[in-house]
Amino acid sequence: MRLVALDTLAERVGLKRGQGAAEARAMCPSLDVIIDDPAADRAFLEGLADWCDRYTPLVALDGKDGLFLDITGCAHLHGGEKALVNDVLSRLFLLGIEARAVISSSAGLSWAVARYGSAAVIAPEDAERVLAPLPVAALRLPAETAALLERVGLKEIGDLLQAPRAPLARRFGPSLLLRLDQARGHADEPLSPRLPVPSFSAERRLAEPLQEEEHILELARHLSGDVRLSLERHGEGGRLFELLLFRVDGRVFRIQAHAAVPLNDADRIAALFRERLQAVHDDLDAGYGFEILRLSVLRSERLDPAQEDFSGVPDESQPLAAFADKLCARFGPDCLTFATLAESHLPERAGGFAPLTDVAAVIGSRPVDEKTFPENRPLRIFTHPELVEATAEVPDGAPRSFNWRKTQYRVARAEGPERITAEWWIDGEGHPTRDYFQIEDQEGRRFWLFREGLYGRETSSPRWFMHGVFA
Q1: Which helix (H) or strand (E) holds 186?
Q2: Dihedrals φ, ψ of 294, to 5°?
Q3: Which of 138, 143, 426, 468 could join 112 in a cystine, given CB atoms 3.0 to 4.6 angstroms apart?
Q4: Which of 385, 440, 386, 387 is nearest to 409 (CA)?
């Protein structure tokens, strides 16, 4: 067992990462060792990233123990960069979290100073002065590269700043100079936010936390009005909305609601979240209350204005869309489905069901013509064809009788075969061919059977399957 993480007190005692637990106990008999749980650490870091959304939506994960926050254009909302750092650290301290935070013009400089320095806010012109006394490990170099630099006497970043660049590149590779330029702010280092940035959003910071669901819904309705103004200004309607609830103890709840048509109506948007809150009521623990509420539009589409008729309804899709939104918000986006066609000549792949996410597209879809879907298909097609025992003439004769589901049927009439070859680009070239027959037994019941494999060419014993019934 070895140490993988240390707190400040353990570092002050002299313990090191990678050190054996027995040796560490010998140095510090009162050492408290906790078994490492990477999954729990990751979940905690994800929760901390959600909490940081109160400062900026651009939050990126940095390994196992760090976060990058792009606060460009956000610092003035919190009283400036110094006030923002103090607010972050003080709130985390009250939550029982020990953290270090640095604001600078580059991610590499902030990373280096947060782990090896002591500054809080670094001006761009002070970057090299702050970097110079830090160890070379602060450049996020591989451990072997950092050890090789120390072995040749280049122990601090200041030593690299004074050394010629060409010999450094030849000896240690281009990654060393890239990391050095990133820390100085001379090379771009784009950050990848963990979540997409919303197109539109509105937020309320509350003096007193909210606990009651009705108060939350009322505030969500006001936020919907603010979002509506932004949507109307850009001529768009929201399709995916998200309500963020920041609880006092640091936990963040994300509640998403889908719309079947683009929406910019405040009452309709608020109604979505009324249904969603009722659906997640048991999982939404208000605790001591929510201090920040934010409504965001994660996906929007062009919304053309429509002239209402005398009934007050713009078009026929609105009542259906309202009904779909209500059900999907309460029971999930997959509760409503509609039949769809696929580009395949195999019956089980030619159709299916898809979630009803766009009501206007379903209403405006063209009717299926005979060329797209033949009319000689049975009323019910099985998702998985069922094996039957059939007696038929070889090589291409229709069945004379067959046993299906422990019942024997005698064939009175048969029509076929309709030959359908396999889709070699999906099933492979060796997949057998199918010969379909429309069968009517002596009592007038009609079935759809197929023989799998061509007798004498693909197999010596073809198998028969029931694929559908006509009535």
Answers
A1: none
A2: -140, 130
A3: 138
A4: 440
Tokens standing for 55?
Answer: 């400062």
| N-terminal to C-terminal alpha carbon distance within the chain | 69
350-380 burial string, b = 16+ CB within 10 Å, else e?
A: beeeeebbbbbebeeeeeeeeeeeeeebbee
Cα–Cα distances (Å) from 169 to 154, 177, 241, 426, in that order, read 14, 7, 49, 50
Phi, psi (deg, nearest 5) at residue 464: -110, 145
For 319, half-sphere exposure in the C-beta direction (CA atoms, 13 angstrom radius) is 5
pLDDT of residue 452: 92
> Residue 180 is encoded by which pair of tokens?
């050095």
Asked if 67 and 48 touch (Cβ cutoff 8 Å), the reply is yes
Q: What is the DSSP string of 15-49?
A: --TT-BHHHHHHH-TT-------HHHHHHHHHHHH
| pLDDT band, very low/low/confident/very high, at 364 (cuts 50, 70, 90) | low
Task: Give 200 or 471, the one with higher predicted confidence.
Answer: 200
The CA-CA-CA angle for residues 23, 24, 29, to 5°, reads 105
Q: How far apart are CA 334 and CA 453, in angstroms?
A: 37
- Residue-wise pLDDT for 308-357, tens only, equals 555 555 554 567 777 777 777 777 777 777 777 788 888 888 877 777 77
Q: Are 467 and 384 in contact (CB under 8 A)?
A: no
**Residues counted in the chain:** 471
